[in-house]
Design goal:
220 residues; alpha/beta; seven-stranded mixed beta sheet; two-stranded antiparallel sheet; 3 helices
């Protein structure tokens, strides 16, 4: 399956901010539903975030969220995100959500927990891709948050207590929705998201699915 057309959906619930959801379906369709652990990158930099459409600016270090937020990756390591600040004081924002399939059972999610799609232990510096528009195409400058994928369910699950893996002493942490909420809370409190005039939520594959699942939640 080759690249598919982009789909735009404008959200108008917030009168102070224009919010758009952008889904980039550039990976095989089955990636939305299943990614074998052996196919997952061992390190986040192997997922080539620098190759994202609109990527600009130097690579930045990971901002880890405190454990008190309830955010966590599948393996229990802290969840975090990357923030590239506008160099011009722009009030345009992009939230760029990484894709990487889903896991469907404890065995699959345990395998995923040992990769960059389930643990922040593998996450090195990264950049972010602005998808806001200007008169002549993409705006090269915005405030950009890149959200790496650490939960295996498009940031949609939440279980407060660790979940045991049958036949193993291992446990899994299903905190995808909390990872999303805690990132947004941090951005509002510390990064200036409350002053945004325009916000584009974008992602590829399972990250694109996240835009449809959560665009309304983000706008609110």
């Amino acid at each position: 399956l080759g690249p598919l057309p982009l789909h735009f959906s404008t959200i108008t619930k917030s009168p102070a901010m224009r919010v758009a959801a952008l889904f980039c379906a550039v990976a095989p369709a089955q990636d939305l539903f299943l990614a074998a652990p052996e196919a997952a990158p061992a390190r986040l930099d192997q997922a080539a975030p620098e190759a994202m459409v609109g990527a600009a600016g130097k690579a930045v270090n990971l901002t880890l969220l405190d454990a008190s937020t309830g955010a966590a990756c599948l393996d229990g390591s802290p969840y975090g995100f990357y923030f590239v600040k506008s160099t011009t004081g722009s009030k345009k924002w992009t939230i760029n959500i990484q894709g990487g399939g889903w896991c469907y059972d404890e065995e699959g999610c345990l395998g995923r927990a040992g990769t960059a799609l389930g643990s922040s232990k593998f996450w090195g510096p990264s950049t972010c891709g602005c998808m806001n528009t200007a008169e002549d195409g993409l705006d090269p400058d915005c405030n950009c948050i890149f959200m790496p994928y650490g939960d295996g369910a498009s940031f949609s699950g939440y279980r407060e207590d660790p979940w045991p893996v049958p036949g193993s002493e291992a446990v899994l942490h299903f905190r995808g929705l909390r990872n999303l909420d805690a990132t947004l809370e941090y951005a509002r409190e510390h990064l200036g998201l409350t002053g945004a005039a325009e916000l584009v939520v974008t992602g590829t594959s399972a990250g694109g699915l996240s835009t449809f699942l959560h665009a309304d939640r983000i706008a609110e």
